[in-house]
Design a protein that fits this description.
With 752 residues, this protein is α+β, with helices and mostly antiparallel strands. The protein contains 20 helices and 20 strands. It has helices spanning 8-15, 17-54, 70-80, 131-136, 187-190, 213-230, 243-284, 286-294, 299-338, 352-377, 382-387, 407-418, 420-441, 443-457, 522-528, 567-573, 604-647, 649-657, 662-698, 714-741, and strands at residues 60-64, 82-86, 89-93, 100-104, 114-118, 126-130, 144-147, 150-159, 180-184, 198-206, 233-238, 462-466, 478-487, 496-502, 518-521, 535-539, 546-555, 562-566, 583-586, 598-602. The longest helix has 44 residues, at 604-647.
Length: 752
């Protein structure tokens, strides 16, 4: 015989449509967001990784002072078992923004072009631009662009695999896809450009692929030695050190860590919401459950019955959310990467991690929570269910209230005392939603504040990094040493650490650093939890050599995670000559140093590129999270205030019998809840601060490279408070409608 309880399922769903609609929207939003991002991240990263072989990406590129002869190239290829490709380019200026553009010829063998739209240039007066540069400067296919002193027709947009990230110089702190771009034209058209702007650049690939970064570095060093004997090399960049190639892949890991953190926060909120809805169902259906138990239904049958709707709704949400994630959201999420990086086209791939996080975990979560809550509650006897005695605690006397307190205020206090567990639940829900909202709001002001901190803590107006030692006569210029090491693998991701060797009595780094010991930047201390007296260990990224340092203190330098030591200590530690130095700190330009000797110049503008680019890269993502947070506020407040209204439906009906109007009753219950909402929002502020600080130190810092200080602007808390209040005002309208629908006859039901 068919179970007659099945007939109740549609009626239960319709009767509590508000609750199930909230669960459905909540789940669908989360799953579409997380699924879309994880699928996009995985698919785009796969296209990036496969692009190395698909587009035959170089293992190194180098620039020579003069063109190499065919005989020299052949000798280098035979001696080093490599292939060398002519990849000359012209460095020109674009007229609209005076941006720098490197114009290459046709690429048929190495660093092949990926056509994103349009076609490649075929005539000498045609050109194809990098897609990101074109987008940032409002160029479209078919437009004309003036480069140098000639006009060219743009025939298409491309992605160059050796410029997935538009670094003009490898020494730059951050790429600039607005003021620097790359382009391609026909070989015949290239020959017509001004020879004074020509750079003799070559790309190199090994005949046998290196097995590791270490082997690649060793092979690269050997090739450079051989190359230096055959040609005058002005620039040499192995792939393993090339930011234009590697930065994109490294950055994707940090974005993924941030989104997974968001996912885990929301899953915790979902677990909380599910427990509340299940408990509310038991309270509401107490009489029905008691009747069914008394009629002979087993605990197992009733548990299964009450689990069908929530689990089914969750499963449907998971299916729809994944469909939206794989179709709509994946494109939106991928566009966030494509707005910043010049990546090749991708194919959407199945992502097992996304399936587990967005489908398996929520369904299991819903199943387990509903099961344990129902199983625990159903231990109560059928008679107690019929009497609605669901609490194991003995009934306590009401709290005495001073009669001098006005009646309406005393009534509101009674409402609070009678629903204290529900209001505690509301506080917890507001706290969770506040975490999401603050998480989305904090990064914009944080990046602005970080940019200001970088400007205040800059070592010098100019940091010159030299290719070779060269003297300057500019007054105030101070020599320094610099080296780059990496942290050891473990709890934290491997991070690049800049090691400075500072001259004695430095005018720029004012710190009394003891001999043999080091100071670390405040970011190093904060991220890795380092304290004075600790010992840190770093490694050379291309060898097995490790270095140990004792920390004597911290130095405020927010731009880069750094270690500072005396120049003498640096020379001894890294086995350098006594007169060794890497560059100059200076507050003036060093005009007497030839550009050929300068590897890079770091200014405050370069250091701030990090924060500027973070805002561009993360802006769309944070806006999305903000809208999600506001929606979460409304859904949670609706669900939890709905529970309070339903629990007090008998009292509300009785109040109507006593002659109170719907507006007066709303003033008693809704205003009371509003006061609790305001208090909860205020109490959430310090708690959110503690939670966010913990998340930064215990999770985010372990899953990302680089450093962002933990700063929450006061404006974020103000906006969060206003959002919470406005969200509840929306809920108030819905709850007033619900109060009006409660009939007076409810006062005669379930009388104990």
């Amino acid at each position: 015989m068919r179970n007659p309880l099945i007939k109740r399922l549609p009626r239960e769903l319709k009767g509590d449509i508000g609750k199930y609609l909230v669960i459905f929207l909540f789940m669908t939003m989360l799953i579409s967001l997380v699924s879309g991002f994880l699928v996009a991240d995985n698919s785009v990263y796969d296209a990036y990784e496969k692009g190395f072989e698909k587009y035959n990406v170089e293992y190194a590129d180098f620039v020579t002072a003069d063109e190499m002869s065919d005989e020299t190239i052949k000798e280098l290829e035979n001696d080093n078992k490599v292939r060398i490709y002519d990849q000359r380019y012209y460095k020109l200026k674009e007229s609209k923004r005076n941006a720098t553009i490197r114009v290459y010829g046709e690429r048929k063998e190495v660093n092949k072009l990926c056509i994103m739209s349009g076609r490649l240039a075929k005539a000498d007066d045609e050109i194809t631009l990098d897609r990101v540069f074109a987008k940032n400067n409002d160029y479209k296919v078919g437009d004309n662009i003036k480069i140098g002193d000639k006009d060219y027709k743009i025939t298409g947009f491309v992605a160059m695999p050796d410029y997935s990230c538009l670094f003009e110089d490898n020494a730059d702190m951050m790429f600039d896809s607005v003021n620097f771009g790359v382009a391609s034209m026909t070989d015949s058209g290239l020959k017509k450009l001004k020879k004074s702007k020509l750079n003799y650049c070559y790309a190199m690939r090994y005949n046998k692929k290196p097995k590791s970064d270490k082997e690649q570095k060793n092979m690269s060093d050997d090739f450079l030695k051989s190359l230096a004997k055959k040609a005058a090399v002005t620039s040499y960049m192995p792939r393993c050190e090339n930011k234009a190639i590697n930065f994109t892949g490294d950055d994707m890991g940090g974005d993924k860590a941030m989104f997974i953190l968001f996912d885990y926060i929301v899953i915790a909120i979902l677990a909380f919401v599910f427990a509340i809805t299940t408990s509310n169902t038991i309270i509401k259906e107490a009489g029905v459950i008691g009747t069914l138990r008394a009629s002979g239904y087993t605990r197992g049958e009733i548990i299964r019955h009450y689990m069908i709707n929530p689990v089914t709704v969750t499963l449907i949400s998971a299916i729809i959310g994944n469909v939206v994630g794989y179709t709509v959201m994946v494109k939106y999420m991928a566009s966030m990467y494509y707005n910043s990086y010049s990546l090749p086209t991708y194919n959407t791939l199945w992502n097992a991690e996304a399936f587990i996080d967005t489908t398996v975990i929520p369904v299991i979560l819903m199943f387990i929570i509903n099961y344990f809550v129902l199983a625990s509650k159903l231990k109560i006897s059928p008679l107690k269910f019929l009497r609605r005695e669901l609490s194991k605690k003995t009934r306590r006397k009401a709290v005495r209230l001073n009669t001098k307190i006005p009646f309406m205020h005393r009534f509101r206090l009674r409402v609070v005392f009678q629903n204290i567990s529900n209001y505690i639940t509301l506080l917890a829900g507001i706290l969770f939603a506040s975490v999401i909202v603050i998480f989305s709001l904090m990064f914009g002001p944080l990046i602005d504040d970080y940019s200001k901190l970088v400007g205040k803590s800059i070592i010098a107006d100019y940091q010159y990094v030299l290719k070779a030692p060269v003297e300057t006569k500019v007054s105030g210029a101070e020599k320094y040493c610099v080296e780059s090491l990496k942290t050891l693998p473990g709890k934290y991701m491997e991070d690049e650490i800049t090691i400075y060797g500072i001259s004695d009595n430095s005018k720029y780094v004012k710190a009394d650093i003891p001999d043999g010991k080091v100071y670390v930047s405040n970011g190093y201390m904060d991220k890795f939890g380092i304290e004075k007296g600790d010992k840190i260990e770093l490694k050379d990224p291309y060898s097995n050599k490790k270095y140990k340092f004792e920390v004597a203190g911290s130095y405020k330098y927010d731009a880069v995670i750094s270690v500072f030591m005396n120049r003498n200590t640096f020379i001894k530690k890294f086995d350098k000559d006594d007169d060794y130095y890497s560059g100059y700190f200076s507050n003036k330009k060093l005009k007497d140093i030839d550009d050929d000797y300068v590897a890079g110049i770091i200014t405050v503008k370069d250091l701030r590129k990090v924060s500027t680019q973070m805002k561009v890269s993360m802006g769309d993502f944070m806006d999305l999270i903000k809208y999600f947070g506001v929606t979460m506020f409304i859904l949670l407040m609706y669900l939890l205030s709905k529970q309070i209204i339903e629990k007090n439906s008998n009292s509300i009906a009785l109040t109507k019998i006593l002659g109170y109007s719907d507006m007066e009753i709303g003033g008693l219950y809704i205003i009371t809840t509003f006061a609790v909402v305001v208090i909860s929002l205020l109490l959430s502020i310090p708690i959110v601060n503690v939670i966010m600080r913990w998340m930064f130190s215990s999770y985010l810092y372990t899953q990302m490279t680089g450093y962002i200080p933990y700063i929450i602007s006061d404006s974020c808390y103000v906006i969060m408070f206003v959002m919470g209040v406005l969200s509840y005002l929306v809920v108030c309208v819905i709850q007033m409608i619900k109060i009006k629908k409660i009939p007076k006859s409810d006062a005669l039901k379930n009388v104990e």
